Amino acid sequence: MIVTDRIAFLVEKLRLSPHPEGGFYSETYRSEERIPTDSGKRNLSTAIYFLLTSESVSKFHRIKSDELWFFHEGSNLTVHTLSGLGHQRLSLGPPSINGKAFPQHLVAANTIFGSSVDEPDSYALVSCVVSPGFDFADFELFGEKELAELFPNSSEIIKKLT
């Protein structure tokens, strides 16, 4: 019950709302400065709090900007990427002895990615900074069938994150 109490507290205190990809978020910063991009003018950068529980996932999606992830609390979170290298994992959490977890990771622009909490009955609270700034017009959510055709050797994680 302590974990569910903490999750409820964070959702209320940080004013988090459901995110279309899964989890909860709240935008905390949107720069006033705007810059030209191939998709039109975008804010220079944006930042959000993002909370994911072990009962949910962040579904595979892609944005047109770089996204920096910063770990705050809870269990480690795995950011799953799909690319020409296949399925790769970025472990986000406190630095670990085995060298796999780090408190910050970059997901490069145009990378297909999603995330999941590593431990059962837990959560992860992170922040994400997007540059150029996030715009839902640049957000693309993927379905299982289209990803399975592109990445036939990654069917297990595709099924989990779609």
Automatic annotation (TrEMBL):
InterPro entries: Cupin_DUF985, RmlC-like_jellyroll, RmlC_Cupin_sf, YML079W-like. Pfam families: Cupin_5. It comes from Algoriphagus antarcticus. It comes from the Bacteria. Residues 10-142 form the DUF985 domain. This is DUF985 domain-containing protein.
